Amino acid sequence: MGDQEVKLLGVWASPFSKRVEIALKMKGVSYEYAEEDLSNKSPELLKYNPVHKKVPVLLHSGRPICESLVILEYIDETWKSGPSIFPEDPCARARARFLAKFMDEKCYPDIWKIGGSKGEEEREKAIEEATEHLVTLENELRGKKFFGGDEIGLVDITANTIALWLVVVLEMVGIKFLLKDKFPVIDEWINNYLDNSIVRETLPVRQDLLAYCRSVFQCSN
Amino acid sequence: MGDQEVKLLGVWASPFSKRVEIALKMKGVSYEYAEEDLSNKSPELLKYNPVHKKVPVLLHSGRPICESLVILEYIDETWKSGPSIFPEDPCARARARFLAKFMDEKCYPDIWKIGGSKGEEEREKAIEEATEHLVTLENELRGKKFFGGDEIGLVDITANTIALWLVVVLEMVGIKFLLKDKFPVIDEWINNYLDNSIVRETLPVRQDLLAYCRSVFQCSN
Predict the structure, then answer these.
(1) Of A107, A121, A144, B55, which sits with the fewest C-beta atoms within 10 Å of its C-beta?
(2) Where in this chain does the record put each GST C-terminal domain (chains A, B) (predicted)?
């Protein structure tokens, strides 16, 4: 299938859009990128994702694929030439899918709760909940460079939310050393992950994301 | 891999457990079944699904797989002999995964909202939201016998929630003809789906589920 027919509708500050960009680059797929304005969604976004009206949407030869985890499966199945995003063994694949889902259903909402928390008590509770999930990830990573083993895989890509978005939110609320102090394995993984050239060139600049998060949460920290 | 080493931790009234049972039977996999008491979870459940502590859990040669959609992927990848649960074409696979996710994230919570709604206004709102999602499914099914085409596939199996749980909840709240009146395509699909011998022998008896839902929602309808 021709790479020239690949288009991504995304948003620069969305960890979900960035997952798809990282996967396409890992596979060496050329693509056109269209930045969406979520306050004024494009007719293309509304046409191709009428159910959720959300980014990312991948268009391949005009056919839309929606939802970042679904798109990552599609990319791995469609472009076999690059490195595999999913492990070969069915049991390891299941574990990776489980953790990717866990990232979206548990970890990401908690990050947003920390950012949006009002007052000390609410913030403490949000951090406590997030901490419980971080323990799971810390144990999962122990003894490995990446969630995917020696190379970046599905869980690493979905964990964009931890590697940058959580870090920025923690900085915003004034506890930027939480990971370094309490989760040294995750902290080391973040360094390894951000050191990857594709990840580094794809994720937003930290200061830009920090400014964005401050504006979203109307926070003056 | 030996079929004799397959065990499922489930709950009879859970549409998620029933998905896994249907898939295992479709593939002709023999398995041991252990009914869980969610008010007194077994040490096995807590050991093998420490993150969510929920059913279903599939144990294969002692290795646990959690989350029903992840388990369905695992079953299809592991037992190749039976009919495929997922479509062959990557684009069709992506659509099936999208709809399965949609079923869990949008449709199922709405069914529970209808069941748990207090008063006329709250119920009307819940039904209105569910109706919007049912329109999506009605359009998806038009011209097809099953979501999977001529045969049952991933989306049909995940749509247990529609075929029985929604039907029972609608009966419980006194609007059992909603589907027949407004969603004839879904209504016909339900008949076709429940007519499948594996589905029929696997899903709970309707009256039992109705009694269960009434007790859960403490509803005297």
Answers:
(1) A121
(2) 89-212
Clarify whether residues A51 and A160 are in a common domain.
no
For B36-57, how does the pLDDT look when each residue is reduced to its tens digit (9 = 90+)? 999 999 999 999 999 999 999 9
Least CB-CB distance to A67: which of B69, B74, B98? B98
B108 & B133 share domain = yes
Together in a domain, A68 and A125: no
Chain B nearest CA to A70, separation (Å): 6
From residue A172, how far is each of A108, A110, A135, A180, A219 by CA, in Å? 16, 15, 22, 16, 8
Does B202 share its domain with B115?
A: yes
* ipTM of the predicted assembly exceeds 0.90: yes
Q: Which phi-psi region, left, alpha or beta, contains residue A174 (left: φ > 0; alpha: ψ -120 to 50)?
A: left
Which residue range(s) make up the domain with B17? 3-78
- Both A74 and A112 in a single domain? no
Report the CATH number at residue B151. Answer: 1.20.1050.10
How far is residue A110's CA from residue B195's CA, in Å, rounded to a whole number? 43
Closest CA to B67 of B75, B55, B76: B55
The Cα–Cα gap between A126 and B22 comes to: 39
